[in-house]
């Protein structure tokens, strides 16, 4: 009888372990990174318009399709190329839609419906919200691998929130984080966010927010205000193959791994004088 009571006390003690702690100790649910295809070179991709204000700095291409309006460059600065309704932006939107659908169908998922991502520590895997998702505070992504967040409606973050991936190569790690958003995403003031945001509708980057990843809106606009966005490279099963020659060039990141600005063969140490982040595009001679 005493042993039975002892077992019941132990079981009761286990029941009060915080859910976030349970997740951090749970085996990861395997996930495969959706391929971004030609969208991998874009830091920002909108459908109707792309609007930028303040002293925003974008590393990677900026595009829009089927719309053609990109405003705010300058004062916003760009290390990359503008694609206003051209064939590359059109193809990138098609590929991004494929990636969105792939992320949405990833299984199995761990449900986080009704919980705030702030304060959680999560291993790689697939996580789902039946409706909206909120980040207040810090989300820790623990361990190398692919993270997919399936969100039924909106994604919002509170002021000064953050996503921390715990990697020494944080930008590369962020390329394997995917946020599949069923409507619109709003990245709040001062938030340091990470991952590829694939929103069915719009994306709003509020003043001072930063993003290691991509802001891709499939049917509406991307709006920015004094932000820093870096299109991190995918080297682990995402938008392009693993890179064997990733030396640091003139651009922000390794050649072929993320966009840069090596468009002069005489001054670039890109292998072929090409523009990083858009494989096959030749640099100026």
Can you offer a commentary on this structure?
This protein is an alpha/beta fold and 285 residues long. It is built from 4 helices and 22 strands. The chain has helices at 2-14, 19-25, 87-104, 170-174, and strands at residues 42-46, 49-53, 57-59, 61-64, 69-71, 77-79, 82-84, 110-111, 121-122, 125-129, 133-135, 138-141, 147-151, 155-157, 162-164, 177-181, 185-187, 192-199, 203-205, 210-217, 222-225, 228-230. The longest helix is centred in the middle third of the chain and has 18 residues, at 87-104. It is globular, with a radius of gyration of 20 Å. The N and C termini lie far apart (85 Å). The model is unreliable at 1-28 and 234-285 (pLDDT under 50).
Q: Can you lay out the helices and strands and say which pair or pack?
A:
Elements: H1 2-14, H2 19-25, E1 42-46, E2 49-53, E3 57-59, E4 61-64, E5 69-71, E6 77-79, E7 82-84, H3 87-104, E8 110-111, E9 121-122, E10 125-129, E11 133-135, E12 138-141, E13 147-151, E14 155-157, E15 162-164, H4 170-174, E16 177-181, E17 185-187, E18 192-199, E19 203-205, E20 210-217, E21 222-225, E22 228-230
SS field, number of helical segments: 4
Helix proportion range:
10-25%
Q: What structural class is derived from the secondary structure elements?
A: alpha/beta
Mean pLDDT: 79
In one word, what is the shape? globular
Give the radius of gyration: 20 Å
Low-confidence stretches: 1-28, 234-285
Beta-strand percentage?
A: 25-35%
The termini sit apart by 85 Å
The main pleated sheet reads as: 12 strands, parallel
Total beta strands: 22
Instruction: List SSEs in N-to-C order.
Output: HHEEEEEEEHEEEEEEEEHEEEEEEE
């Amino acid at each position: 009888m005493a042993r039975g009571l002892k077992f019941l006390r132990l079981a009761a003690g286990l029941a009060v372990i915080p859910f976030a702690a349970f997740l951090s100790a749970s085996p990861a649910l395997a996930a495969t990174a959706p391929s971004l295809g030609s969208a991998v070179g874009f830091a920002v991709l909108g459908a109707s318009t792309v609007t930028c204000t303040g002293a925003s700095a974008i590393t990677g291409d900026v595009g829009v399709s089927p719309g053609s309006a990109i405003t705010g460059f300058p004062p916003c600065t760009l290390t990359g190329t503008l694609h206003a309704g051209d064939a590359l932006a059109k193809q990138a939107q098609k590929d991004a839609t494929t990636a969105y659908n792939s992320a949405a169908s990833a299984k199995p998922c761990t449900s986080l419906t009704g919980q705030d991502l702030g304060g959680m520590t999560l291993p790689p895997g697939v996580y789902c919200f039946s409706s909206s998702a909120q980040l207040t505070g810090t989300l820790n992504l623990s361990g190398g691998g692919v993270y997919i967040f399936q969100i039924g409606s909106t994604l919002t973050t509170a002021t000064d929130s953050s996503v921390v991936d715990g990697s020494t190569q944080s930008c590369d790690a962020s390329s394997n984080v995917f946020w599949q958003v069923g409507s619109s995403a709003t990245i709040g003031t001062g938030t340091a966010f990470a991952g590829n945001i694939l929103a069915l509708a719009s994306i709003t980057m509020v003043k001072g927010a930063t993003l290691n990843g991509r802001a891709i809106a499939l049917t509406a606009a991307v709006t920015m205000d004094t932000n820093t966005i870096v299109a991190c490279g995918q080297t682990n099963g995402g938008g392009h193959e693993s890179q064997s020659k990733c030396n640091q060039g003139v651009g922000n990141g390794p050649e072929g791994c993320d966009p840069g600005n090596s468009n002069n063969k005489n001054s670039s140490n890109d292998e072929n004088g090409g523009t990083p982040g858009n494989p096959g595009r030749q640099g100026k001679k």
